[in-house]
Amino acid sequence: MSKIYFYAEDEKHSRITTALIQDSGNLACALCFGKEIPASVKNSGANMIVWFEADDDSPEHYAKLLSERLVETNATAALFESTARGRELAAHVAGFLNAPMFSDASKLEIKTEGLSCEHTIYGGMMLRSSSAEGFAIATTQAGFYEREVPKKEVEEIERIKATEIDTRVQVISREDIVKAGVDLAAAPVIICAGLGISDIEDLAILEALAVESGGAVACTRGVAEDRGWFAAELYIGISGKILNPDLYLGVGVSGQIQHMYGIRGAKTVAAINTDECAPIVKSSDYALIGDYKEVAPALLAALKK
Question: Which residue has the higher pLDDT, 294 or 172?
Fold first, then answer.
């Protein structure tokens, strides 16, 4: 068995990555950096944890040490969750090792000869199928694999005292981001508000639909950033959340490609829109053509029956 290393900040993402690696017949080695091992790593179900221990908890400062470790252990690949830190760490490691790197990989396969996947190009406007022989790096987002391992505490821990980390960039202060709403990635149903919603009071009917369907309310970028109706972490799209719900319902959503990229993993896509020629209507499995102020209440009444 070969070792494949991965870095993930979200526990579910950790367990999905572990499943992918173990299903390929390889050993899943979870990475963590800093003073302690996060719960998301402890409960990942990985074969082992490789802990670079130091007072500094910025993963990007460990890129050179991690690169050396990957070479020493003849790693097959390294996978990184596509977060701000994950992407930065992946890019640094790829640079140190002069290795191929696939950004936002989906349909990822780990083969004997290397990685193969679909990944975005041109800022998410297109998907490309690619493969690499030998060691390669990939960043992954929600929905890149269909299975996750059960929550299980990892028993084997390799502790590495990191004495030579890169501290040229240092943290001066920290301020936590106050997150609003629910965990969109965990919601089976997403009700999405678009710019076609004319009044903020109308969001109440979307909230009611979400409650009745066991889902959550999200929005498009314009609704969050231009109107300020939602927190920034609740908008879907290439620069926002990438989700793979069982059902996505866009209400007053035009369906521009940057937004649709964020729901390309959805099992079923539905839309409520007055414009039957809107891009989202053409991309939907089901479309209700009409005014959301009439259609959404009728849909809610049907759900309550």
Answer: 294
Q: By C-alpha distance, which of 253, 259, 245 is closest to 215? A: 245
CA distance 303 to 290: 18
Q: Are 41 and 32 in contact (CB under 8 A)?
A: yes
Residue type, 185: A
pTM for the model: 0.75
| 81-93: burial string, b at 16+ Cβ within 10 Å, e else | bbbeebbebbbbb
Residue where the block lists tokens 């979400």: 210
Angstrom distance (rounded) from CA 266 to CA 281: 15
220: pLDDT strictly greater than 80: yes
What is the SS3 string spanning 218-260?
EECHHHHHCCCCCCHHHEECCCCECCCCCEEEEECCCCCHHHH
Measured distance CA(273)–CA(271) in Å, rounded = 6
